[in-house]
Amino acid sequence: MHKIIFLIVALVFTPVMANASEADEASIKAIIADIGKGWENGDGAPFREHFLDFDGARYIESGGQNEGLEDLIVHHVEPEKGAIENFEVKYSDIEVHFENGFAWAIADTRIKGKLVKSGRVIDKAGRSTFLFRNIDGVWKVVHTHSSSRDYKPKK
């Protein structure tokens, strides 16, 4: 009898759990896309919406570090608005993994633009990692780490 009850419960709830995971994955991918747009536009709003602001937060990029959400926005995101023409930040091949209210995503990253001051064109490729916590049913970024180097097409 217990086996039958377990089987019924498993059959009833498995599709719901699969849909929740698919919805969570879609939500995280949408957050990452929104963050990319924030970078491109020098707009801190997506960061304020999607990042969990807490003491000790750190965001790492190519060996540099921002401590706290305001530091990231004020000293990194917003200044790039006027510093880089035609700025593009694209995330692709995003892998999302979940575990007990925690998620992490790994993505290929491509960054392009032209530095206003020097006219130098940048074209970088690399990887980004995003760590998330589920807070009251909403995914929030708690840490990012990005590393890139000059883009070299595969031969």
Describe the structure.
This protein has 155 residues and is an alpha+beta fold. It has four helices and six strands; from the N terminus they run H-H-E-E-H-H-E-E-E-E. The chain has helices at residues 2-41, 45-50, 69-77, 80-83; strands at 58-61, 64-67, 84-99, 102-115, 121-135, 138-150. It has a six-stranded mixed sheet. It is globular, with a radius of gyration of 19 Å. Mean pLDDT is 88; it is low at 2-20.
Helix content: 25-40%
Which structural category do the helix and sheet elements fall into?
alpha+beta
Average pLDDT for all residues: 88
Strand content: 35-45%
Run of helices and strands: HHEEHHEEEE
- Largest sheet data: 6 strands, mixed
User: What shape does the CA trace take?
Assistant: globular
Low-confidence parts, pLDDT < 50 over ≥5 residues? 2-20
Strand tally: 6
Spatial order of strands in the largest sheet:
2-1-6-5-4-3
Number of helices: 4
Distance between the termini: 61 Å
Radius of gyration, in Å, reads 19 Å
Keywords:
six-stranded mixed β-sheet, 6 strands, disordered N terminus, alpha+beta, 155 residues
Condensed summary:
The protein is of the alpha+beta class. The protein contains 4 helices and 6 strands. It has a 6-stranded mixed β-sheet.
Topology overview:
Elements: H1 2-41, H2 45-50, E1 58-61, E2 64-67, H3 69-77, H4 80-83, E3 84-99, E4 102-115, E5 121-135, E6 138-150
Parallel strand pairs: 1-6
Antiparallel strand pairs: 1-2, 3-4, 4-5, 5-6
